[in-house]
Amino acid sequence: MSSRISATFSKLKAEQKMAFMPFITAGDPDLETTAKVIRELADRGVDLIEIGFPYSDPIADGPVIQASYTRSLGKGLQISQLFNAVRGVTQSTPNLPPLVGMVAYAIIFRVGPEVFVQQARDAGFSGLIVPDLPADEAQEMAALVKQQGLDLIQLIAPTTTRQRTQKIVETATGFIYCISIAGTTGMRDQLPIELREQLKWLKTQTDLPLAVGFGVSRPEQVEELRGLADGIIVGSAIVRLMGSITTDQTPVPDALNRIGDFAAGFVKTAHCSK
Amino acid sequence: MTAAAPATSQVPDAGGRFGEFGRRFVPETLMQALELLTEDYAKAKADPAFQAELAALLKNYVGRPNPLYFAERLTKHCGGARIYLKREDLNHTGAHKINNALGQALLTLRMGKQRVIAETGAGQHGVATATACAHFGLNCIVYMGEEDIRRQKLNVFIMKTMGAEVRPVTSGSRTLRDAINEAMRDWMGSVENTHYIIGSVVGPHPFPLIVRDFQSVIGREARAQSLEILGRLPDEVIACVGGGSNSAGMFYPFVDDTKVALTGVEPGGRGNRPGEHASTLSYGVKGVLHGSYSYVLQDADGQTSDVHSVSAGLDYPGVGPEHSYWKDAGRVRYTPITDAEALEAFGMLSRMEGILPALESSHAIAQAMKAARERGPDEAIVVCLSGRGDKDVYEVARVLGQTI
Known about the structure:
Chain A is α/β, with parallel strands linked by helices. Chain A has helices spanning about 5-15, 30-45, 65-75, 80-90, 105-110, 115-125, 140-145, 160-170, 195-205, 220-225, 235-245, 250-270, and strands at about 20-25, 50, 100, 125-130, 150-155, 175-180, 210-215, 230-235. Chain A has a domain at about 5-155 and about 235-270: Aldolase class I (TIM Barrel, Alpha-Beta Barrel). Chain A has 12 helices and 8 strands. Chain A has an 8-stranded parallel β-barrel with strand order 1-2-3-4-5-6-7-8, surrounded by 9 helices. In chain A, α8 links the parallel β5 (about 150-155) and β6 (about 175-180). In chain B, α5 (about 125-135) links the parallel β5 (about 115-120) and β6 (about 140-145). Chain B is α/β, with parallel strands linked by helices. Chain B has 16 helices and 14 strands. The interface between A and B is large, with 44 and 37 residues.
């Protein structure tokens, strides 16, 4: 059975396009705005949307995303409210791109993996990324996620050995999240040269689509990755625009417009087939 | 669920499991480094030359073995079991933290790395790491929560004097847990040339193993000294538990001595409501924090709770996985001591014995005083006096409404 995420990547591949996947933090500044951002991004033609579940101790994330989590949790955001809000959007909006949840395992374990995955499916998520659940510990989650017809997206880092890579691609579904640089999420000027080599080798190891994230912030970087990766993920830049609603009192419609324009720039480059 | 099997000292397994606890819940970026560290540490542990070098450092630089001291006046005052203090406060730098910092600094050199990062709460681990790095000429960066920097100015000054850079952490609760987050983040981007000297028996495998092993010198000495002084093992061993490094080091060599009662003392703070204490094992739930599976203080969504303790070294919302294992196996009993009780013990030990204990250790002293009263004069209690209290005098004065 082909998942929504696989179908999305297959369709883009047939059209020789790359996928563009923006990341947003749920609940910053509030869930009502999150719903608006999801719709705005969908209107601008993004291919998938990654939704970050705010967590109190996010070690994989850089300062921009952590600050957004802190703002969101500071307002008392609860996971059940997040699921309700996302369900509200998915049930009322036709043709939404697949939603992928980025969730710390601390949250999943506390809610209960089985319950959590079911709630994620009911809310309309198509896949989950659990950044602190390495392949070594992912068997149970992989089985649960599969049972509910979702994908468990796994990460490969620049430090991942070839031996580990083989273990990871065995349990991964949907796509492989390729971390471009050793470090946390955040904007970087350049993508490292080693990334090219790693992506080329990865292509020989798996048929899963490869999406590159961490450190991607400019449409030109999409060009660098064309032919090597099947998609790109942009996080901190959009989260910063969202944060400006709180930090700079940017009116919500203005922030939505800026985010929309930013996303449209990426979509245009990613979808320009060559 | 079946009853837990009795605790054994033969943990963790190759996957870092202490029973069900421990393991690795970290971003993929760190997995390779943790696997390499596990291998390098296993080789170092088995290498007599490495162990000899560490033993010489502990003797000549730290001043080990430190005494097992009979607290005669305190014993008389309590009117029960004999109280013996394992004097980690007499170590160079004034706390048990140096045992681990030196061991891991040696490991850093062995791995060919030149840069060290560390986190610190009370500042004792930061000072110990800065000291070890100065001794070996390693670059040292210490992450410390802004709130802790306020509470522990003296240690901040010492670290800087030793040549370390102290980086204030302003995210989250601005205490130890956020300092750990920042150190982990640094390590994700610097793992090629940097070793993270974690200060407690927490974090992903192999850290809980490494720190326990380096701290076990406390329990090994205390056990041998008990046999020498008492002619037998003590009836009870007591130590305070924040993340749990001095207690893990103290308890581990006694784990298989099933007749010795082991008591871990948690920071009870101002009461048992969430946010008022940091008694992870007494009031927490099983969960994931800082890369390992253990008891944690968190809400129903898995978000880490805010914690409180008068002692900056104990206000941590997690605890080492081996402690969780000991708790569930029934090998160690964990009990809270309040801020007020700890402050009273701080004053009591000072007046009765002329020993100024750290606020962390004061928790263990308070519990020992309670336990001694419930035991007879033929019985003996060994307490880990994990550090000296000089660093705490400003905070104690502030809490007592006095000025220095």
